[in-house]
Amino acid sequence: MVAQGRRGEVREAAILVATLELLGEVGYDRLTMDAVAARARSSKATIYRRWSGKPELVVSAVKRYAAAPAPEPAESGDLRQDLLAVLLAMRSSLTGQDAALILELMLAMRRDAELAAVVRSQVVAVKSEAFGDVIARAVARGELPSTVDHALFVEISSAMLFARLFVSGEPLDDAYLRRLIDDVLFPLLRQSGLQ
């Protein structure tokens, strides 16, 4: 029974990995259960026993493999250094995953409400928690007031990283991340009277 359970886990993992690979290669609209079955060396019947259709399959794959939180950076005791550590982790996560997969998920989210909800709750929310932790620690140290709303900073930093990755194609190097903090995030804190 244990061996059969383990085989089932291996089979499921192969199907979910194949789903993400194909999603990045051909896109959500052209992703088929036949293609997933062929890539995973599985039968369609096996896939349909576990998932009722493509949205459910993609949602499971995103939950399992694309939503893993980045390791939480160690606290440095300094807001600037902590922000830089979070941005470095975000960059690593964005560039470590296949950019085509990330872009395809963003496009598919516009057409599939269930997929969008899962990506927002499992990927976006998880990634923003690290930023919230940095802000909370800065508040605890007295660097920021307790009224600070970190959501704006999460949105701006994420948008700038995405624009760099998908729009301009310019490098997401350390110098750029430092400029993002010094020229955008800290000035916003000052302008808001929070620093």
From TrEMBL:
Q: Name one Pfam family in it.
A: TetR_C_11
Print the keywords alphabetically: DNA-binding, Transcription, Transcription regulation
- InterPro entries, per the entry: DNA-bd_HTH_TetR-type_CS, Homeodomain-like_sf, HTH-type_TetR-like_transc_reg, HTH_TetR, Tet_transcr_reg_TetR-rel_C_sf, TetR_C
Q: Which residues form the HTH tetR-type domain?
A: 9-69
Task: State the name under which the record lists this protein.
Answer: TetR/AcrR family transcriptional regulator
**A GO term for molecular function:** DNA-binding transcription factor activity
Which sequence positions fall in the DNA-binding region? 32-51
Species whose genome carries this gene: Actinomadura darangshiensis
